[in-house]
Design goal:
With 542 residues, the chain is an alpha/beta fold. 51% of the residues lie in helices and 18% in strands. The protein has 18 helices and 19 strands. Strands 8-9-12-13-14-15-16-17 form an 8-stranded mixed beta barrel, surrounded by 5 helices. The chain has a 5-stranded mixed β-sheet with strand order 4-5-3-6-7, sandwiched between helices. Helix 13 links the parallel strand 12 and strand 13. The protein starts with a helix and ends in a 6-residue tail after the last strand. The model has no long low-confidence stretch (mean pLDDT 87).
């Protein structure tokens, strides 16, 4: 194959020299009987062009496994047309067709390199071509399958050399797949994702193609000779034609790549239930976005529950944690479902403002009639990146006519060094206004004790998983007890959450926790009923 390619280059060079020499010597035409006529050298030009086309065509046929399908498609269209034009030129010397033969390759280059961009290594067209193909098939109501292959390590590691190696290996597998199924089309979505459309030829062939592709990728990973093996995840959507549009497909693919199965296996075939769950999630997302756009601090779709917190020393309830629920067309959605979606679409801050406003309204109603300390509200760590967060939230509290010390803010432990400056700034401003902080879910993040102590946290909430594991682990139990003492010695309050039975209650008290939260003492209740857990003030102070 290398010899043939070298022959092509040499012949093309000779061809260019001959054509140039003839043109410069003005030997293409001669004057006979006062008329211009082509000389025999003109036909030499045509014959050499035909030979060059023959050599190129031979090279294409021999190297077809390494040539992208998009090239083969257009070459199959243009090369025969070039040959026909050149032959017609031989038999019709009075008319010049050569200019047309020069234009066609330029058109080919324009189509491939400008109109439909493609990756030069893999030979795949880009994301726009994929979307166009998808929409065309969808508009024609044709049945097809979509396969997506992602290399997660390439997404998080900026390694150009590794990307190039992966692309070259991948191009081999793509060519093999295209040979096996001529109705398969591969697209380079980005540096770490390949999408494949399998037009319906037969169910058996599509299944075989999917199995073949996975086997080839597994073999490529197994035989990877370098230490930085990229690994891959693959999802298969059999009923891709049922998806309404490109945007829905794009988000659905993202949804599938988050599937739990991919944590155990590198391949997952989507089911009808997956698409139903995806549509439910999209519906929730739209609701959240609409809540943000409406920006109504009293939006009825945001429902507030509270969970009272048991005070061990006083044997009563003086604090509670506010918990959010979402009403989506009559269905109550739990926070573990909608909070990640709200963070994804940038709406979590609006939800925080709404729940804070509703909690403040309730506190204003009961503060003169019941004894209690405060109600805590969770604030996303991402919100603390706004240096003006304290002004906005304090304004909501004061607008409702309550003291700032009636509100506590809860923050998760998973903070990084890059975020500390903004976090510390906001926490200092909140503390100055009388708002104390809870460090939520302690034991699930990666913050060290030095960082925790350096920030103005008042209460440390131990995650329930630590408590559960310590029941059967005496070493962990002693470690928790020691940490509880350390925090107390630094003037902090310690609280454990998730206590569900008597054994866990007794263990929590034994470990030295001052406050206990969990179903053992109180389940979440609507915020309107929170006063049922608080002690009434005496009439003379009411």
């Amino acid at each position: 194959m290398d010899i043939l390619n070298i022959t092509n280059i040499i012949f093309a060079s000779v061809y260019a020299v001959v054509v140039g020499a003839v043109y410069l010597s003005d030997s293409y035409v001669e004057i006979v009987d006062a008329e211009y006529r082509f000389t025999s050298l003109f036909n030499v030009n045509i014959y050499m062009a035909l030979i060059e086309i023959a050599l190129v065509t031979s090279s294409i046929i021999i190297n077809r496994r390494g040539i992208p399908k998009i090239f083969m498609k257009y070459i199959g269209l243009f090369v025969p047309l070039e040959i026909v034009l050149l032959i017609v030129q031989v038999f019709n010397p009075r008319y010049v067709f050569l200019s047309v033969t020069y234009v066609l390759p330029f058109i080919l280059c324009y189509i491939i390199f400008h109109s439909i961009l493609f990756d030069e290594v893999t030979g795949c067209q880009n994301k726009m071509a994929f979307q166009s193909h998808f929409q065309t098939l969808r508009n024609k109501n044709k049945s097809f399958k979509v396969i997506c292959i992602k290399f997660p390590r390439l997404e998080i590691v900026d390694n150009i050399e590794l990307m190039d190696i992966v692309k070259r290996r991948l191009s081999t597998e793509i060519r093999s797949m295209e040979e096996r199924n001529n109705k398969s089309y591969a697209y380079q979505i980005n540096d770490y994702t390949i999408a494949i459309i399998l037009e319906h030829k037969s169910d058996a062939l599509n299944r075989q193609t999917t199995t073949f592709l996975k086997r080839r990728l597994d073999e490529a990973m197994m035989n990877w000779e370098f230490s930085n093996r990229p690994e891959y995840n693959m999802i298969v959507i059999d009923d891709a034609d049922s998806i309404k549009n490109v945007d829905a497909l794009d988000t659905y693919i993202g949804f599938l790549f988050e599937h739990e199965t991919l944590k155990k296996s590198n391949c997952y075939e989507a089911t009808a239930q997956d698409y139903a769950r995806y549509k439910d999630r999209r519906h929730i997302e739209k609701c959240i976005v609409d809540i943000r756009n409406q920006d109504d601090l009293n939006d009825p779709r945001v429902i507030v529950f509270v969970q009272p917190i048991y005070d061990v020393a006083n044997n009563d309830y003086r604090n509670a944690e506010a918990l959010m629920r979402l009403d989506v067309d009559g269905t109550i959605v739990q926070p573990d479902v909608f909070i990640p979606l709200a963070e994804k679409v940038g709406c979590v801050h609006t939800l925080t403002r709404i729940i804070l406003n509703k909690v403040c309204k309730k506190i204003y109603e009961i503060q003169d009639y019941y004894n209690f300390e405060a109600v805590s509200v969770n604030v996303s760590l991402s919100e603390f990146m706004d240096y003006d967060l304290h002004d906005e939230l304090i304004e909501i509290i004061q607008m409702n006519g309550i003291s700032c010390n009636k509100i506590r803010l809860e923050m998760t432990e998973t903070m990084t060094n890059d975020e500390i400056e903004a976090i510390a700034h906001n926490m200092q401003e909140f503390n100055a206004a009388g708002i104390h902080f809870y460090l939520d879910d302690f034991g699930t993040g990666y913050s060290n004790l030095e960082r925790i102590v350096s920030l103005p946290f008042k209460t440390i909430k131990f995650d329930k998983t630590l408590l559960y594991k310590s029941e059967d682990d005496p070493i962990l139990m002693q470690l928790i007890k020691n940490m509880v003492e350390v925090f107390k010695n630094h003037g902090m309050v310690v609280l454990v959450e998730g206590v569900e039975n008597q054994k866990q209650e007794e263990l929590s008290i034994k470990l030295g926790f001052e406050y206990i939260q969990g179903y053992r003492f109180a389940k979440p209740i609507p915020v309107g009923n929170v006063e049922s857990y608080f002690e009434k003030k005496s009439k003379k102070f009411a």
